[in-house]
Amino acid sequence: MVLKKSPLSFAKMAVAKFLTVLMLMEVIVSDYQFGAVDGLNMDYYQMTCPFAEMIVKYTVNRALQNDPTLAAALVRMHFHDCFIEGCDGSILIDSTKDNTAEKDSPGNLSLRGYEVIDDAKEQLEQKCSGIVSCADIVAMAARDAVFWAGGPAYDIPKGRMDGRRSKIEDTNQPAFLLQFLTTD
Question: Cα–Cα distance between 165 and 39 in angstroms, integer?
Fold first, then answer.
């Protein structure tokens, strides 16, 4: 008896391989090292918000069950966040009347998954207000999306500080790079 893999299995495997490549790009861009890095560590929230990772993972898994395409979107959001000023959550900052934020840059207009990050942040604020940074939520969400899509399980150091600067001018990259980043 020959078992055929369903098109969904092939699609999930392709997404997993794609997400693994994006994860490796994140590692390179964020200058990831094992253990503690610049005040970051694997157990950063263990004492102050011990359920942080579980809350983010649950939120991400629930969202991905409803829309599996968000897995790649969350990894892409994390990559775009890390690309400008480091992994600081500044991709989440909205524009104001006096400032156009990086979120509204042409290369970022097609980013999706903000509602997943907002939902996780809302739940975390109910459990441990003012503790978990949005930057860490974006990083954990990307990690959990990779695993959900069939990629490897990996831990990340936590303790990122949220950026307070988000300007569209910072996103001015060479045209060939912008074209690469906006291709879905």
Answer: 21
Pick from 179, 135, 173: nearest CA to 156? 135
Torsion (CA) 175, 117, 152, 40 in degrees, nearest 10: 90
How many helices (H) and strands (E) are present in the chain, helices listed first? 6, 0
Structure tokens at 26: 């994140």
Catalytic residue among 78, 80, 103, 143: 80
Q: Is the pLDDT of residue 35 over 50?
A: no
Question: 80 catalytic, yes or no?
Answer: yes
Of 6, 7, 3, 9, the residue nearest 149 (C-alpha): 9
Q: Is 12 exposed, middle or buried (0-12, 13-18, 19+ CB in 10 A)?
A: middle
Residue range 164-183: mean pLDDT, rounded: 67
Strand pairing partners for 158? 41
- State the pLDDT confidence band at 34, using cuts at 50, 70 and 90: very low
- Which range, of 24-28, 87-91, 114-118, 131-135, averages the lowest pLDDT? 24-28
